[in-house]
Amino acid sequence: MVSGLERFVRDLQEDVIDRAFEEGQEALQDAAFADFVLDVITEEGEWPQHELARYRRDRRGELAAWGIDADNRVLYLCVTDWESIGVVDSLPQQNIRDKLNRLEEFLKRALAGNFKSFHQIR
């Protein structure tokens, strides 16, 4: 018997894969996942409109999406972890720390003017 969480994960995976195919970017399921999640929390008023971005360098930073709340002068940054294996599994704390550290490094380097460009999706 499939649990409610397993059903949710399977449905989410199908939605993300469908979204990636609709946008003609089958190889960018991680971007489709970020877009899906951010669309949901944007509708809830918890995140501003976002732009997808694709940047990851082990020691130089990571970014999946960003958004700006101009009224409150807040920059939102996002990293994600997507696996298309359809298995419910916990994300190890070290993976979370690594992603947040790379995000922090991205921000530091960006504020220092160390980026000429990064790939924005859309």
Description:
The protein is α+β, with helices and mostly antiparallel strands and 122 residues long. Helices cover 43% and strands 20% of the residues. It contains 3 helices and 4 strands. A 4-stranded antiparallel sheet has the order 3-2-1-4. Strand 2 (61-69) and strand 3 form a beta hairpin. Helix 1 packs across helix 2 (29-43). It is globular, with a radius of gyration of 15 Å. The model has no long low-confidence stretch (mean pLDDT 85).
Task: Give the SSE layout.
Elements: H1 4-22, H2 29-43, E1 50-57, E2 61-69, E3 74-78, H3 93-111, E4 119-121
Antiparallel strand pairs: 1-2, 1-4, 2-3
Strand coverage percent: 15-25%
Structural class: alpha+beta
The N- and C-terminal alpha carbons lie at a distance of 39 Å
Instruction: Catalogue the unreliable spans.
Output: none
Number of helices: 3
Short description:
By secondary structure, the chain is α+β, with helices and mostly antiparallel strands. It has three helices and four strands, in the order H-H-E-E-E-H-E.
Attribute tags:
122 residues, 4-stranded antiparallel beta sheet, globular, 3 helices, alpha+beta
